[in-house]
Amino acid sequence: MDRTARHDFLCDNTTYVYQRSFSRVLCCRRERYTPAMQQLFDTLPSAFAQPDYLKDGDTQTVIRLTIDNNPLVVKRYNTPTFLHRIKRLLRTSRAARTWYAAHLFQSIGLVTPEPIAFIEKRFGPFKSLAWYFYTYTEGTTLLDYFESGGELDDSIKQAVLNCFETLAQQRVSHGDMKATNILIHAGTLSFIDFDATSDKEAGFEQRLGKDLQRFLKNWATEPKLHSAFVTLFKSSEVLQPWHALLDNGF
Question: I want to staple 144 with a disulfide (CB 3.0 to 4.6 A). Which of 140, 203, 221, 224 is the partner?
Answer without folding.
Answer: 140
